[in-house]
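ok so for the tutorial part 2 we go from a plain amino acid sequence to predicted structure tokens. step 1 is just haveing the sequence, like this:
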Amino acid sequence: MARRHHERRTGRRPYQEAISHAQTHSIVDGPTPAARLQALAEYLELDWTWLAARCRALGQSGITGMLRPRSRHLTLTALDQTLRFLGAL
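step 2 — the prediction. this is what the tokens look like for a chain of 89 residues:
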């Protein structure tokens, strides 16, 4: 039992630096939700102006006409709200 535990720790050792870095650094660092979303878009190499405009257009027209949830218990209202929020930034 003790040997298995030691083998698991040894197996993780090469990844410890990456794990430590990920725990202390964020790719979406920022003081506001808008700043964090812009940081995420930059990380993903998305043009923020295009993304905001597209979200605004989708939020205004509504996404429910394009997508159909598989379950009648699911709604796309929150997605429309999210798109409107992103488009307003």
